[in-house]
Amino acid sequence: MMLNSAPASFCTRANALLRKNLTFQKRNKKTNIRLILFPLFLCILLVVLQHLVDNQLDKPEFKCGCICTNDSETCGDSEKVCGVQYSDQNQVLACAVPNPPEWPPLLQLPTGEFWYYTMLFTADNVSFGQMVTDNMFPSELTMNYTDIMASLATNVLGSGVTPDSNNFIEPAFTSDRPIFYLQTHCPQDNFSFPDIYQIGGMQQYANSFSYKIAGFTVEKDIICARGVNLWWYSASEINHQLYLQEINTIVSAFDFLNSNENGFNVTVWYKSNYKGVNDFGPTELLRFPRSVNLISNAYLQFLLGPGTKMLFEFVKEMPKSETPIRIEIASLLGGLFYTWVILQLFPVVLTSLVYEKQHKLRIMMKMHGLGDGPYWTITYGYFLVLSVIYMLCFVIFGSVLGLKFFTLNDYSIQFVFYFIYINLQVSLAFLLASFFSNVKTATVTAYIGVFGTGLLSGFLFQFFIEDSSFPRGWIIFMELYPGFALYRVLYEFAQSATSGSNSGTNGMRWQDLSDNTNGMKEVLIIMFAEWIVVLFVAYYIDQVFSTGSGKTPLFFLKGFQKKPLSSFKKLSIQRQGSNVLAQMEKPDVIQEKEKVEQLLLEPTIDHAIVCDDLKKFYPGRDGNPGKFAVKELFLAVPRGECFGMLGPNGAGKTSFISMMIGLTKPTSGAAYVQGLDIRTHMDGIYSNMGVCPQHNLLWENLTGREHLLFYGRLKNLKGSVLTQAIEKSLKSLNLFHGGIADKQAGKYSGGMKRRLSVAISLIGDPKVVYMDEPSTGLDPASRKCLWNVIKLAKQDRAIILTTHSMEEAEALCDRLGIFVNGSLQCIGNPKELKGRYGGTYVFTMTTSLDHEKDVEEMVQQLTPNANKIYQLSGTQKFELPKEEVKIANVFQAVEVAKRNFTVFAWGLADTRLEDVFIKVAREAQAFDTLS
Asked: Which of 802, 800, 829, 799 is nearest to 916 (CA)?
């Protein structure tokens, strides 16, 4: 059977949720402003710090100029010393270097100190290669102490100290590590005053020489190491050896190809894994020319004899002009600070999702027709747009304020990175929201993660990045954590901006991503892959655990699966006989079952709700037996009827409602709402279903009118129809006048919230409505008003109402069903139930304790089948069968008793619905105990 009104389309429901989100966002203007101002404040703070640092670096001690020798601020010209002030080395970086120092050329030796170093070679003509390489290393050290630096150039010197990005200072000569000179053989002790070094487990003797630089005299040790020429099988084998990651003694390698005495054709290899800690390029190339000169000299000596040599005299840098010292604070601190700025979005998204989960608002929206498709599309897109706006503000603020972190790096790279990362961050929030049920816990955990990630990245992960010996594989593994991946990219942006600022060039460009040293390419790939995977896993977990849909873990394979044997079958078989026997004693329940079976045989079901042998079984846990919450329920509710469900706590009413509204799946049996099966067509049922839950599920920041607008749109109401429906609903429940409709729901009283929940359940003309104790917390006047609304509402729809108020049940319900221990014990209208289960009068009399026996005797005289049901301090209650007692006889007996003893009070009452409820519940519980 088709529903009377078409359900809202995907676009209509998505539009409703989007409007609700925008309204909710509008309510949080202050929070939004604070969120946007945080990156602005941080950028301004970095600008202020940059200004303070620049001012400090502009002071005389950091500028190349003149200072007073008497340490006073003012002095005469004769007391000033100009140029680089040796008492304050901070000036060195700023001063001009018109005549850079000349350094002897060096070979780049492997890291570490060895007693020999290896040169590999290969050639088509092996003997030719051996003869040439035999000329590479001298047999003795040549030193002229009158011009020590020039004499050193005639030797083959090398150092394992990493070169700097320029040759203004040669670290090999300024470090405390010795310089090696390579010879064919090393003397044991040819120095007058040797120092002793332990090199490679051997004692090596060294001599010191002194040289001057910038007015300072520096002592330097020089040690002999043997130079070994080693022939290798092929060029490919040499290439393999050179690029091994472990430390070895190979300095360079040479392939003479087809060289001979008539032609010189050589390929020179160098090891490219020597990187400077503070450098951004292959600084080992600064020492590469020495290898070329060395092999060229060897070939000349092969041709022309040992006396022939092309002297490589020195290496020097180009002259440098005076430059101010600058420190790019935004790039120096940006990695840490910007990590916090971007991660700040994560707690915002996470807490919003957990808020909907904690207050069951997601389930409420689903029960009113909002499917998973519109919810995920709008919610994900909504948070993505907010994140994009936030990141745009962040980049714009930084760019406008002139922070080179933003202005030097390519904006397109920044956009791609930020877009991928915020998608990953939103997806991660959806995933983690499934594991939190409390907003406070989620908030605290998220902010601990934010600050912890920043600190660990800045003080631990960065150390690993900068340590060239740390395995690259472990770096990639750590980047699988999104926070470290974020920091890695920000670190690379900062490094590129600093390099560009210092050199006057641009920062990062797309071509730089091909450089494996910066790690950008691998991080972007990791984040993109994680975005897709995390989004898929988040959606999967949401379907299985979070939505209340009851989907199995393999729901996507549903079409290929066979239904497993139900876990409750053994218990069902064991208790089937007793259940049938119990049902056989209830003609009204049997009649309802026959009615359901007849309805199911008809081509169309003309009842709004039909339950066919509905069961819900919860398996046992921790050694406890399983339990039927609902068993063998047959029920048919037509349109225009309000059916009341009565029962003690734990009777199964909530389990029944949960199955009917789609929160849980029935264990067996079926139920049909407007002809649609609750097991397979809940999405269609939701569009024509209204729910008033036991607890008010409301957004505290939205007004009553905005709640009704949202749920009305979900029910496909539009334009004037929507406006009229909202006005009518607000007026009927006394929420229209006094500005109540436009007051935020968080400021409502408990009664107002309850009335709003009822209004939400009836908006959009749903054909089936479930109300769980709708009048809880209402004053008598509001309760009366609510009853009138429900009476009018049931004229063209089916309503199932649960209540503990017998007065409410009699006033509203056309039929009642009393539920005990998961079973429907009786069913009928209130008058029928009182007539069927309450065929007695209740006689009450209060006397002194001495006359209690006299009262019992009087009642026995009225009817021997009287049943005492209460006795306390002289007050006694008796049930008197109506067919055996006349009211006149009771009055006559009381008048006689008054003449014999004092009667303080007495009364005769017909059976109440409450008495029926208590009687049925007791009988059912007693029967279950016996069975």
From this structure: 829
pLDDT in tens, 659-691: 888 878 888 888 998 888 888 888 778 878 888
Apex CA 660: angle with CA 16 and CA 701, to 5°?
35
Q: CA-CA distance, 661 to 647, in Å (whole number)? A: 19
Please give the average per-residue pLDDT across 18-24, as a whole number: 87
Between CA 864 and CA 868, with CA 866 as vertex, the angle to 5 degrees is: 135
CA 746 to chain CA centroid, Å, is 28
Structural contact between residues 140 and 191, judged by C-beta atoms closer than 8 angstroms: no
Chain center to CA of 321:
52
HSE on the CB side for 633, CA within 13 Å? 37
Average pLDDT over residues 837-866: 86
Of 82-91, 114-123, 163-172, 631-640, which gets the smallest average pLDDT?
82-91
What is the number of other CB atoms lying within 10 angstroms of the CB of residue 12?
17
DSSP 626-660: PEEEEEEEEEEE-TT-EEEEE--TTSSHHHHHHHH
Three-class SS of 344-375: CHHHHHHHHHHHHHHCCHHHHHHHCCCCHHHH
Contact 211, 218 (CB under 8 A): yes
- What does the angle CA 393 – CA 398 – CA 402 come to, to the nearest 5 degrees? 145
Tokens of 321: 């002009």
Strands 202-213 and 80-83, sheet pairing: unpaired
More confident position, 343 or 515: 343
Residue 475 has a CB neighbour count (10 Å cut-off) of 18
- The reported pLDDT for the residue numbered 868 is 87
With CA atoms as reference, report the closest residue to 410 among 327, 489, 483, 484. 489
Q: What is the mean pLDDT of the chain?
A: 81
| pLDDT value, residue 69 | 63
Q: Output 199 or 477, whichever has higher pLDDT.
A: 477
Which residues 6+ apart lie within 8 Å of 215 measured at CB? Answer: 86
User: Which residues are registered as beta bridge partners of 822?
Assistant: none
Token pair recorded at residue 300: 């000349």
Distance from C-alpha of 148 to C-alpha of 143, rounded to nearest angstrom: 6
Return the beta strands (E) in 256-389 as ranges: 267-270
Sorted by where each begins, the domain ranges of the chain are 20-43+328-546, 61-91, 107-304, 839-910
The pair of structure tokens assigned to 901 is 């003893």
DSSP secondary structure letter of residue 225: E
Classify residue 737 by burial, with Cβ atoms within 10 Å: 0-12, 13-18, 19+: exposed
Superfamily of the domain at 839-910: ACT-like. Chain A, domain 2 (3.30.70.1150)
Residues in a beta bridge with 801: 644, 771
Better pLDDT: 407 or 578: 407
Residues of 169-183 as b/e, b for ≥16 C-beta within 10 angstroms?
Answer: bbebbeeeebbbbbb
Cβ atoms of 276 and 467 within 8 Å: the answer is no
Helix, strand, coil in percent for the chain, rounding step 5: 50, 20, 35
| Residue of 694, 661, 669, 653 whose CA lies nearest to 614 | 669
DSSP string, 405-442: HHHTS-HHHHHHHHHHHHHHHHHHHHHHHTT---HHHH
- Read off the tokens for 87: 């008492």
Of 43, 263, 327, 281, the C-alpha closest to 132 is 263
DSSP one-letter code for 669 = E
* 760 in Cβ contact with 692 (< 8 Å): yes
* pLDDT tens-place string over residues 803-813: 888 888 888 88
